[in-house]
Amino acid sequence: MNQIDYAVREAENAATIEHPGLVGRIRELSVSQVFEPLLPSGFEIGTGKICDRNGDQSNEADIIIYNRSILAPIMYSERDGVFPIEACFYSIEVKSKATALEIQDAIRKGNSIINLYYAGADADKPNNLSLVVPTFFAFGSDLSDSGISELQRYAKYDPEWRERPILKAICVVGKGYWYHSKKDSDWFFCPPTQTHDEVIGLVSGIVNTLASARSQNRQALLGQYLMSERNVSLVKS
Asked: Domain limits at 16?
């Protein structure tokens, strides 16, 4: 895919810019350009925070894939905003390089999403269950060829990594793509190739999931975000 090659080159070029904020923005835009042409109808990409009806918010996410036909976000620019959790499907952390600190940061941000309440959630829902899939993407890694994989490193920081992981997908250019199957309670691996099959695997997995998610009925009412709980009484004639 030409978009993937372009995104990788842009990330490499951005590494020479001495401005961390700008570098991060270039990375996010590069990844967004890979996904946007392939998203099913109705899905869009934003950046910002995810919120719930109780007023709680997640940490800031690099890329949020959402559907405004479910609930409209509050936008502060063309792309930046606050997005109701019922309308969100993926949250993607985009990094120049996968490191232990970046993995831990992504776990922390994923936790802030998982802890949000959403309509239809059971009070006794299992840990690490959310409408949103926290995902980690990096253009490189500080791991040497010592035989330790990105998944093995991730497992050090998430005690429930095997059955109920916080991050459900990990993709590192040149290292591979790992994704967790809730159905099988296990991880699957797509090895890297010169044509970046690891990135194609991530993109395909997300797009396929979004296509099937369109038929799911998500309970979402705008009024539950606009009004707090209040006492209502019957007016008798």
From this structure: 2-216
